[in-house]
Specification:
By secondary structure, the chain is mainly beta. It has one domain: Metal Binding Protein, Guanine Nucleotide Exchange Factor, Chain A (Beta Complex), CATH 2.170.150.70. It is about 10% helix and about 35% strand. β1 and β2 form a beta hairpin. The protein binds zinc ion (2 copies). Keywords: Lyase, Metal-binding, Zinc. This is GFA family protein.
């Protein structure tokens, strides 16, 4: 499996099997991504190969978040208590559908409108303007 940031300056390749696929609703993930939640998977650090420069930001004690310095894509999460593991954003995989999210974490912080997602109207592409209104 492989993945990349939006601009393609950073790419990665996995040489092992991802595990612990979760939707994280914590405030830090929300702000770091600009999205209501982030889907992560974990990989052994030794089984991950980077191409291109990843820049890191310490978002809280012992936590380093990696992103592309050119386009800003959120890519990785690492906690110093688990130095041999790294989390990557599942949506940056070339084929995210190969993973099956197992659970939600930090649901105390889940936005009310995320709970409503399955109930909303769906448009195949752009929303069509309602011209009769
Ligand atoms: Zn980029
Ligand atoms: Zn989080």
């Amino acid at each position: 499996m492989q993945g990349r940031c939006l601009c393609g300056a950073v790419r990665y390749r996995l040489r092992g099997e991802p595990y612990h696929v979760t939707h994280c609703h914590c405030l830090s993930c929300r702000l770091a991504s600009g999205a209501p939640f982030v889907t992560w998977f974990t990989i052994r650090a030794l089984e991950l190969e980077w191409r291109g420069e990843v820049r890191h930001y310490q978002s809280s004690m012992g936590v380093q978040r990696g992103f592309c310095p050119r386009c800003g894509t959120t890519l990785s999460y690492r906690h110093e208590s688990a130095p041999d593991e790294i989390d990557l954003t599942a949506a940056t995989l070339e084929n995210p559908s190969l993973l099956t999210p197992e659970d939600h974490t930090w649901v105390d912080n889940m936005l009310d409108w995320v709970r409503m997602l399955p109930l909303l109207p769906r448009h195949r592409r752009h929303r069509q303007l309602n011209r009769s209104a």
